[in-house]
Predict the structure.
Amino acid sequence: MNGIILAIESSCDDTSAAVIAQGRVLSNVLATQEVHRQYGGVVPEVASRAHQTHIIPVVEAAIRQSGLAVEDIQAVAFTRGPGLIGSLLVGVSFAKAFALARQLPLIEINHLQAHVLAHFATPHAPSFPFLCLTVSGGHTQILVVKSHSDMEIIGQTTDDAAGEAFDKTGKMLGLPYPAGPEIDRLARLGSPRFEFPEPQIPGLDFSFSGLKTSILYFLQKQEAEAPGFSQRELPDICASVQARIVSILLRKLIRASEQQGICEVALAGGVSANSGLRAALRLEGEKRGWNTYIPPIEYCTDNAAMIGIAAWYKYQKGDFCAQDVAPLARWQF
Ligand code: KG4
Ligand code: ZN
C-alpha cells in the first residue's frame, strides 16, 4: 500500500505517535505527562525530559497497534511548531533520525493547521470553505478554511487563550491542572447564576484576561464576606465561568458566520472537548441553519493522528522538507 505515514506530536506536554495509511488512522497512541499536575501548569524543562522518556515506547506502540512493521513506513511527519521549543526538539530530532536511518521523506506540520485538519480523520468532514474555531491551551482563533492547505486567521485572542482562562480559573479554585475538564464536570452539577462581564473587544478578536481578573476579584470579595464560599459554591461558580467563556466564543463565531456568509462551522483544539461549548454550538447551529462539526474528543486534544492526516495532504503533493529543518516555537502560517 502507498501512503503509510508515521506521525509524531510533541509540541507541549503530550507525547503522541500515529500511523496513517492513505489518510486513514490505523493507530493513535498518547502518553500524557501527569508530572505537571504537582506544579499547577506545564514546566517546559520537565516536559522535554518526559518526551525523551516517552517517545520511543509511544512510537513502538503506534507501529505495533497499526498491525504494520517498521519497514512499511513510507514517510515521517512531525510537528514543527508552534509550541515549547524543548518539547518540539525531541519530536523533530526523533523524526529526522528515523527518516535518515530508513531513507524516508520528512513532512513538517503546523500544529494549528493540524488541529483544523483533525476533522478529516472522521467520516463527517466539513466542506470548503468552512469556519473553524480553534480553542486550546495556547491558542484561540477563528479561521476561514478554504482548502487543506489554505487557511486564513480572521480573529484571535489578544491575550490569554480560552484554555488558559479555564486553567487559570481552576487554579484560583484550587482545582488540579489542567482544570478545563474538571470545570466542565463540575459545571454540569451547578447552575450559571453568577454574572461575569463580557469583554467588549471590537471585530472578531477575543480577550480573556479581563474575565480572569473579574473572577479573581469576585472570589476575593465573596471569601471576605463568607469564608468557604468558593468551595461551597464550586459547581455554580464553574457553571457561571464556563457559560461566560462559551458565550464569548459563540458571539464571535456568529459574527464571523454573518460577515463571511459561511454556514459550515467547525470546532477544533482541546477546549472543543467542553460539553457546554459542544452543546451551545449544536443549539446555535440548529437555530441558524449551520452545519456544525465537532471531532471526537481524542482528535480534539493534542494527538498525532491529526499530524498524520495533515501530512497525508502534503504527501500526495510531494511536499517534503529537508533534513536541516529546525523547530519553530512561533509559527504563524
Ligand atoms: O489542544 P490541547 O490539548 O493543547 C494545546 O495545544 O494547548 O488543549 C489543552 C487545553 C487545556 O487548557 C485544557 O484545560 C483544555 O484544553 N480542555 C478543556 C476540556 N478538555 C481540555 N477545557 C474545557 N473543557 C474541557 N472538557
Ligand atoms: Zn494543541
Remarks:
- The radius of gyration is 20 Å.
- The chain is about 45% helix and 20% strand.
- The chain has a mean pLDDT of 96.
